[in-house]
Amino acid sequence: MTPLFPDRSGPFLTARTAFARRVLIGMAVLAGGHAAPGAVAAQDGRVAAIRSVLAGGAAEEAPGCVMGQFAEGRTVRIVSQGEADLAAHRPLDADTLFYGASLSKQFTALAAATLIVQGKLALEDDVRRYLPELPAYSRPVTVAMLMHHTSGIRDSLSLLRMAGLADVGQASKAQALGLLFRQRDTAFEPGSAYSYSNGGYLLLAEIVARVSGRPFADYARDAVFAPAGMPNAYFLDDGTPRKGALAHGYLPEAGGYAVRDTFPRFSGSGGLMLSMADMAAWEADVARNHRVWTPQVAQILLTPGRFNDGTVIDDGKGLSYGGGLHIGRKGGERVIRHGGSAEAFKHAYLRLPDRGLSFALLCNRGDRKASATLAAAMRAAGVRPPGQPVRPQAGLYHSDELNADYALVREGDGLAVTITSPLTDRPRRLHFTARDDGRFHAGPMSLAPSGDPERLVLRRGRSGELVLIRTAERKPR
Description:
Layout: H1 17-22, H2 37-55, E1 65-71, E2 74-81, E3 83-85, E4 90-91, E5 98-99, H3 104-117, H4 143-148, H5 156-162, H6 173-182, H7 198-212, H8 216-228, E6 234-235, E7 250-253, E8 256-259, E9 272-274, H9 276-289, H10 295-301, E10 320-321, E11 326-330, E12 333-341, E13 346-352, E14 357-363, H11 370-380, E15 395-399, E16 404-411, E17 414-420, E18 428-434, E19 440-442, E20 445-449, E21 455-460, E22 465-471
Antiparallel strand pairs: 1-2, 1-14, 3-4, 5-9, 6-9, 7-8, 10-11, 11-12, 12-13, 13-14, 15-16, 15-22, 16-17, 17-18, 18-19, 19-20, 20-21, 21-22
Helix pairs in contact: 2-11, 3-7, 3-8, 3-10, 5-6
């Protein structure tokens, strides 16, 4: 079957640890060629801009982020900023291992999909066939419901915290599973609603382990990471991360940063340890190699889930959900994405099949908003994020219906807008930021391009649309 989101093929470089160390920061890595001096200078400028975004105003000796940009499965650039270990002053690089948080879900779903392709598991299977410890609920929970977050299975991390455990990093898989098995009912009728659940993915990983007859981490290593050529990736199995090129997580504290490696040590909903070199290898497999990302596997992961009545899932952010991935369209183009968030780790992943581009961001500082940081890094790389509005011309705009002037100034990636009206003696200044719905937002108010560079569309709540027209001078009152 043809995948819902087929990916393009093209030149690629397979990523191994040795390759990652050869990546030249600031230069496109092209198969079989060299960048011209002018291109190198342009890339240097891009990288400086990206590093500035990743730094977020922090000093050199601070935690930070690694950003990867990929085109048709080849690595365009890997840019790092900050330190993996502040005490040792060890810098972040392509081989640094991060706790992947919910980026893990894509790879948990992949492991399950390989068993489905082999005919050992089915999306329609009642999960009690593999997990008899679960009670019989009002409606059977299926494997598909776990994968698509429609099962009603309660969130395992929330249950651990409600049971009194402040640091979920101290919990074992057995303890987390035990709480799930104790639940007398689901949060809602299975298949009737969408609710993001770490508990559902913990159960999905346990099903993979029981069907394969092997520990989940071992099966994922042999079925996913090894054939994809991911050099550093592995799942935790109730143990501490391996020593080596590990990034500690940090939170701001008392003018500095405090270590916060407070993530769960079991896998399924999280538990993945990976580097940007692993993401480079994975993008090569998705775009060209197809050792793991086969058409059959892609079909499973990129088919939107459905509710019991047949309607497609809405994740509440304008996308649907497949196998560990949010999927849909933004700004008219196909989007595949997912985030990852632990206390001190913030990550984002974005694939744009129509452009043949992919981006990943791995951060070891909990004060970053990964999606916004990735969008800003993309703009610094000269790439417009999906659904992001085109910034209008600076200048003066007028609305006759409001009898008000809007003076626009470009400010960073957004707009600074000063509103002047006879209703007030003092002009009002607002800051509008770009979102992926094609509009600039300042609280409940938004501005959007109209297709005519001389006109903007203004909205606030359900008041409808008003038009702002560009003018050379302030209008008389």
